[in-house]
Fold this sequence. Notes:
The chain is of the alpha/beta class.
Amino acid sequence: MNRRQMLLATLPLVAAPTLLLAQDKALPAAPKAEPRRDPYAPTEVSIRNDFEVGSIVVVSKDFFLYHVVAPGRAVRYGVAVGKDELVWKGRATVGRKTEWPSWRPTPAMIKRKPEQYGRWADGMPGGPTNPLGARALYLYDARGNDTSIRIHGTTEPNSIGRAVSNGCIRMRNEAVMALYEQIPVGTPVYVY
Length: 192
């Protein structure tokens, strides 16, 4: 009698068939889980033909920003947008661009949440802990006035795909850095 047979002989009869099945019969392999695709990762997609090449289109309700790269083609990025009544919509142009921007909350933000924003009333220097992240595109209206709305990076990448901001359009830092390199001042921006 070999060791396996001796071991089986000492086990109760009920346990032997289960043990034999597990050892002697190959079990089917568990199905491999497909890697979960990030729905907010940059992706080239089709877009309406009537947006000019180079422009930026934001569809707030879907949490996507489109950079039009060719007629009918755009790179789609996931974004976070303003919550509820703070969603900004309209047409603007990129009036200024900044790497590692400083940040100053608006008076309205300080009034809404003085405990959160009041200490930064004089501004916060740029850097990795700054809420504007690695890059910012400043949106200006048709008369050349700063709208106080930015397309910017974030220190909260898990906010992408949600309505959480005070009106600005947030992107993951690596996404806004890529966009920043391709967007000149004067780029038209449409926010729906």
